Amino acid sequence: MSRLPGWLQRLVDVGSLPSDSDETRLQKSVLVLSAMLMAALASIWVGTYLILGLPESAAIPFERILETAQSPWPAPVTLESSP
Fold first, then answer.
1. pTM value?
2. Residue 5 domain-assigned (yes or no)
3. pLDDT-derived band at 65, boundaries 50, 70, 90
4. What angle do CA 74, 80, 82 make, to 5 degrees?
5. Is residue 19 part of a domain?
6. Cys-Cys with 8: which of 1, 2, 4, 43 at CB 3.0–4.6 Å?
């Protein structure tokens, strides 16, 4: 039974396949949640640099946010190939 709200559970399950074991599903969920947390913290980092008047320095964490946002989207269409 999930302890997450419905919208968050759907987001966390974005990379899971119906054929995944419980352990694999948990690993994928942790990966997605950690990426979301890093993006949220990087947003604070960007805001802090912008408030301090350092837009060039804000570009580094902003780039990390873009990379994080782009990385999970291929996961739902990627299937494991069997040897």
1. 0.63
2. no
3. confident
4. 155
5. no
6. 4
